[in-house]
Amino acid sequence: MVVNIDRLFSKRATRFRASEIRELLKITQIPGMISFAGGLPNPLAFPVDIIHECIEKTFQKNIKEALQYGTTEGLTSLRGVLAERMKKNNHINCELHDILITGGAQQALSLVALCFLDPGDTYLTSVPAYLGAIQAFSAFEANCESIPMNDEGIDTDSLRRNLERLRRTGVNPKFIYTVPTFQNPSGETMALGHRKELLDVASEYDFLIIEDDPYGELIFEGDFIPPIKSFDTKGRVVYVSTFSKILAPGFRLGWVIASKEILDKLILAKQATDLCTNIFSQYIAYEYINGGYLDKHVQQIKKLYKRKRDVMLKALKEYFPSEIKWTMPKGGMFIWITLPKSIDTRLMFQKAIAKKVAYVVGEAFFPEGGNYNSMRLNFSYSEDDLIKEGIKRLAEVIKDELATAYQQDTFPPEGV
Question: The CATH number of the domain where 379 resides is what?
Fold first, then answer.
């Protein structure tokens, strides 16, 4: 008898949807494909020789401990050097007991969802939003309210209007999710005043702020803007970051900084999930920071990515039609493209693949859909000459789409 496995899945499991970006990574394996799709660090940004040294030190000093189970909270020495670095570089007042080491930032977001979202609960997010966060939160059957962004970051006027509307219907959002610095996918950065105002609004309406900060150190130009967490005096901000962009994503190491009440729940949730984060990686990360390597290497990453951003911006200016708009990020890994409304990047995608160039359609970053005329481009991964060639190919596809849309508008079907 054949098992009717669909009958046995939980309601939650039936809501799972494949990540468009994860699926795209399969397409990018096609020979000759130039991919601007995945948010991948450049392999040249991996400090291979330093990692080798750190592994050797771990073998010499702590190999038995590094091969054993670890505590759920994470390696004490790693949390200690992280706390010192957060205070020094990010102005976040924290100690090691305020930090939980996670299996990447993605696990941190899933733990947040597990601890705060019941089916039917509501959370807020600025849009466009990081696709991985949308996945993590929607898996817990929560309702999403999207808040638009403007040149300063989250549109706080729109946020207040939506909060008042929700309050009138008896809905109290649990938290707002935001990537305030070099946002994924737009590359935009929230202004200092908006960060402080967002904290005031969260206090006024009594919800948390989930601050995701994977790109904050990758600043190419302009002044450093402290994280929202650095202004938090009441434990209202849950700060999430990762080693994926400043060490290597293969280590699967992230961390959370939060109040004791929140961290205690996250720790219990993590115990039920995986007991502890990869302890061997944690020892290597500790040696990496403690040896004074991290700050120096971040400077090298910034130079590499700034050059690649400049190559892409120059190519966009050279090849893209004048109707196309794009963001000018001062750091991070992404550029957001906005096309005329006559262009649907979902339909255009297969034509781009035929030209062997890939992007992520903008719709993927909007929980409620829409924004079909936008796309995200990653500039950190590809080689410089391939960035230029890829933008040239993409420009050809866009020009063809614009010409087709113009013809359809100029010569409507008979009877219309």
Answer: 3.90.1150.10
